[in-house]
Design goal:
Elements: E1 14-27, E2 30-36, E3 41-47, H1 48-51, H2 53-61, E4 67-76, E5 84-95, H3 110-115, H4 117-120, H5 124-146, E6 150-151, E7 157-158, E8 170-173, E9 176-180, H6 185-195, E10 197-205, E11 218-227, H7 231-252, H8 254-259, H9 265-268, E12 275-278, H10 279-286, H11 297-327, H12 333-368, H13 378-386, E13 392-398, E14 415-423, E15 428-435, H14 440-449, H15 458-465, E16 471-477, H16 478-486
This protein binds 4-amino-1,4-dioxobutan-2-aminium adenosine-5'-monophosphate (4AD) and magnesium ion.
Length: 506
């Protein structure tokens, strides 16, 4: 038995494949069946003259998602996905599916697809996304392994909050209150004091009572923690790490990314040095007080609004002209069809522009009115990264907007040595991290200020009592990275079974 992924080594030979009928059409004695076997998709041609009438009729009737095994000859065909076609000599149905598989090639609403996630995962696009996710995970482990980091696991059930108490999932642990972990970091710090360089890679939980395209309730986080690292070394590692993972995946997942129709122009820019700036400088840029490459954010956004307007006018004019042609009665049937399709396409483009026409003025508004000292919202991150079109690292944040464990900058009082990595194209924060506070008295004060129970953090304070050293780390949200690399509109497609507000099934 062979797998579709290996077909190139079987050119001109006969193979046996096992898989599922993903799609099928027939014409004049031929059935074109797209077989999927988990490793890929391939067109299999069933010819009545080869397999005989009975088999041919059975193939013609075979419902979508029936499982089968088949034998056939592998032929090179550049036009096919994967570059090969299988000319079937014999096939056998393993299990005939019921009629009416819920997910057909026609368009479906997102809610319907999410309700059928267990079946939707089989579609070509979802298959490709999961392959990219898999490659990203592998690239992450390879990177840290090559750098001598030890992979260690943090507990999922915990007795202390790491990232504030507002989005904790509470549960019960033998009659005691407990939480699902928001982050493995505090345990990561303890493990780094034992092993030097470690990383955790596990599920984390945040009760986000809203639906956004960037938030999940359950997501996977990669959290390296490094003894003797300061903020500068931390940022260097973030940059090297993200560059390594992204370039690796760009190299290895070319065919998957082309199935997803990802334009990788912006992604290629991870090869350039990342932009780094302090929070205060980022704010000056966002508010339009400072120019980048000769223009302010306000000018950029106003230009974008004007450009959208003119693009829309051009499209509307073309729609009008084509409509007039259709109605003129001078076109042949084929030409009418062509123009009708074209008009539908153009109308979709207009819709997309109209969506942007709503977003851009909102960004402009929030950029103008941004209050110095506040945390960034999604639109602020979008506006800032738009100015550069490549990843931006923002560091030295006001202490009030960051977690209790962040180290205060001695030279820059009131600012925490934290860093966020913001991805371009509207993806925003993918990494958050920084240098950790080592002063036990300041830590105790912050625990009180953040209204956290001191007793639950005593073990954490022990790390400052014995073997206290400067150390840093960061957390990368796996699903945010998958969304960015694949260019997805929404984070829900980045994980096999997403958990988010209002979604616990399937
Ligand atoms: O910025 P965050 O909250 O940082 C921490 O948890 C630190 N303890 C990490 C560390 O220093 N070890 O979260 C880190 C990353 C974010 O940058 C984002 O990519 C992702 O986790 N993330 C989410 N991803 C999906 N859904 C959510 N609700 C997320 N919340 C955070
Ligand atoms: Mg963060």
């Amino acid at each position: 038995m062979a797998y579709i992924k290996e077909l190139s080594s079987f050119e001109g030979k006969e193979v046996e494949l096992k898989g599922w009928n993903a799609q099928k059409r027939d014409s004049k004695g031929l059935v074109f069946l797209t077989l999927r076997d988990g490793t890929g998709f391939v067109q299999c041609v069933i010819n009545v003259e080869v397999v005989g009438n009975d088999s041919f009729e059975a193939a013609k009737r075979l419902p979508q998602e029936s499982s089968l095994s088949l034998k056939g000859n592998v032929v090179k065909d550049e036009r096919q996905i994967g570059g090969y076609e299988v000319q079937v000599t014999a096939f056998e149905v393993i299990s005939e599916a019921e009629e009416n598989f819920p997910i057909s090639p026609k368009e479906h609403g997102v809610d319907f697809l999410m309700d059928n996630r267990h079946l939707w995962l089989r579609s070509k696009r979802q298959w490709a996304i999961m392959r990219v996710r898999n490659e990203i995970i592998f690239a992450i482990h390879s990177f840290f392994h090559s750098k001598g980091f030890v992979h260690m696991d943090a507990p999922i059930l915990t007795g202390n909050a790491c990232e504030g108490t507002s989005d904790l999932f509470e549960t019960e642990f033998y009659e005691e209150p407990a939480y699902l972990s928001q982050s493995g970091q505090l345990y990561g710090e303890a493990m780094a004091m034992a092993q030097g360089l470690i990383y955790t890679f596990g599920p984390t939980f945040r009760a986000e009572k809203s639906k956004t395209r960037r938030h999940l309730s359950e997501f996977w986080m990669i959290e390296p923690e490094m003894a003797f690292y300061d903020l500068k070394m931390d940022m260097d590692l973030i940059e090297e790490f993200v560059r390594s993972v992204v370039t690796n995946v760009l190299d290895k997942c070319k065919s998957e990314l082309s199935i997803i129709e990802r334009d990788t122009t912006f992604l290629e820019k991870v090869r350039l040095p990342f932009i780094r700036m302090k929070y205060e400088d980022a704010v000056s840029i966002i508010k339009g007080e400072v120019e980048v490459n000769g223009r302010t954010t306000i000018q950029m956004l106003e230009e974008e609004i004007a450009q959208l307007k003119s693009e829309k006018e051009t499209l509307l004019k073309e729609i009008e002209e084509r409509d007039a042609k259709i109605k003129s009665g001078e076109l042949k049937k084929g030409e009418i069809n062509f123009n009708t399709n074209k008009v539908a396409q153009l109308k979709n483009q207009v819709k997309e522009i109209e969506e942007k026409e709503e977003n851009v003025p909102a960004w402009l508004d929030s950029a103008r009115n941004f209050r110095r000292g506040n945390d960034f919202g999604g639109s602020d991150e979008t506006v800032l990264t738009k100015m550069f079109g490549q990843p931006v690292m923002v560091y030295n944040w006001p202490q009030e907007v960051k977690a209790f464990y962040m180290k205060e900058d001695e030279q820059d009082k009131g600012y925490a040595k934290g860093v966020d990595l913001l991805a371009p194209e509207g993806y925003g924060e993918v990494v958050g991290g920084g240098e950790r506070e080592t002063d036990i008295l300041r830590l105790k004060r912050k625990i009180i200020e953040h209204d956290l129970p001191m007793q639950a953090f005593e073990w954490y304070l022990d790390l400052r009592r014995w073997g206290n050293v400067p150390h840093s780390g960061f957390g990368l949200g796996l699903e945010r990275l998958v969304a960015w690399i694949c260019g997805l509109q929404h984070i829900r497609e980045t994980i096999p079974f997403p958990r988010s507000y209002g979604r616990l099934l399937p």
